[in-house]
Design brief:
This protein is of the alpha+beta class and about 200 residues long. The chain is built from three helices and eight strands. It has one domain: Protein Transport Mog1p, Chain A, CATH 3.40.1000. A hairpin with a 4-residue loop joins strand 5 and strand 6.
Length: about 200
């Protein structure tokens, strides 16, 4: 039996999205969450491209448009599940703490979040940068509804990147484009998550 503190540690270590690590394992991707794809978001089709199940409690799947790769993507959809006592609010606040720490070395880092009181969901909208890459993300945190798996949270997220000199125009365009993506994400019907044993 894991404690809430243990789950918080898992989330902090496992949800470091902005790592820029090249994924060298291009074997057939295993589907863990009963969401094989494709996933459509804002008129773009995303197919399952990579998945990870590093421990008994955490699952992550990434989806990319045709022709894109994890290390050079411009758009990505992510679906994550974490089984345990962590709530959507706690998960989001853990990410906020990570972003606050990041601000000390990354002046681009900025975020805001909103709560949906009727559902208990949270939506975190943030931008970060590293090594000439600018990345914008919108994370929607909700409750895991897979009774067989037990308590937990689900993260459904969209991510966009720009590289090098394109980063300046990317940040300018975000002022209007992010609003469309956030509005879409806020009402998006998240696929039913059922964790495969």
């Amino acid at each position: 039996m894991y404690s809430k503190k243990h789950f918080i540690g898992i989330l902090l270590s496992a949800c470091l999205l902005f790592s820029f690590d090249v994924k060298n394992n291009y074997q057939q991707v295993k589907e863990y969450l009963s969401v094989p794809g494709p996933v459509e978001f804002n008129k773009t089709i995303f197919s399952l491209s990579w998945s990870s199940h590093p421990n008994n409690s955490y699952y992550k799947q990434e989806y990319l448009p045709a022709g894109e790769r994890s290390e050079t993507f411009s758009k990505m959809i992510m679906i994550e599940a974490l089984v345990g006592e962590l709530t959507p609010k706690e998960a989001m606040m853990n990410k906020v703490a990570e972003l606050d720490e990041r601000k000390k070395s990354d002046p681009v880092t900025n975020y805001q979040f909103i709560q949906n009181p009727s559902t208990g969901e949270y939506l975190l909208d943030f931008v970060i940068s590293s090594n000439g890459i600018v990345e914008w993300n919108a994370y929607r945190y909700t409750t895991l509804k897979d009774k067989a798996a037990g308590k937990g949270i689900v993260l459904f997220a969209c991510s966009k990147r720009a590289y090098g000199k394109a980063g300046t125009g990317f940040l300018k365009a975000l002022k209007t484009e992010r609003v469309k993506d956030i509005n879409t994400l806020a009402v998006y019907k998240i696929p039913e998550i059922k964790i495969k044993p």
